[in-house]
Amino acid sequence: MNPSISRSGLRTLTVPVLAVMAVFSVLGGIWLTTVTGVYYVVVGALFLLVAVQLYKRATGPLWVYAALMLGSIVWSVWEVGFNFWALAPRLTFLALFGLWLLVPAITRGMGNLKWSKLCLAITLVLTLIVLSYSYIYQV
Q1: Out of 46, 53, 76, 88, which residue is the most buried by the measure of CB atoms under 10 Å away?
Q2: What is the dihedral of CA 34, 76, 127, 74, to 10 degrees?
Q3: Alpha-carbon gap, residue 88 to 134, rounded angstroms
Q4: Which among 119, 122, 107, 10 has a CA at the least distance from the CA of 59?
């Protein structure tokens, strides 16, 4: 494999950022478990799994993140309903990071990710639909 094709500076930056987010999510999630449940611990573990898979150039990180997005949509709507101001902080950051993962430089040299990119994109569109619906019908 050509090293210039398989290495990506953006992926090199993304992996430690995702790992730090994982640590903070797990630690904060452990504390929040006493109040809200285990959601943030699971999110932190999934962030860490995505970071490890990106580092290893595995073919699964986008599938894992798509599952994280779908689970977060379901959990968020279950927890707060369609209250836009409560949904936005729960979903916006995750969706923006999902968009970041779709940047070609992040996944360069990782094999055929066509279907996992499509799946992640669909969950991001679903997030936009849920947020838009909650905003329109909040007013």
Answers
A1: 76
A2: 100
A3: 9
A4: 107
pLDDT value of position 2: 47
Per-residue pLDDT at 7: 60
Buried b (16+ CB within 10 A) or exposed e, 1-12: eeeeeeebeebe
- Report the alpha-carbon distance of residue 125 to residue 88 in Å, rounded: 14
**Predicted TM-score (pTM) above 0.85:** no
Torsional sign, CA 25, 45, 15, 98: negative
Residue 3 to residue 27: CA distance in whole angstroms: 36
The residues, ordered by sequence, that sit 6+ positions from 75 with a Cβ below 8 Å of its Cβ are 39, 90
Q: What integer pLDDT is reported at residue 1 of this predicted model? A: 45
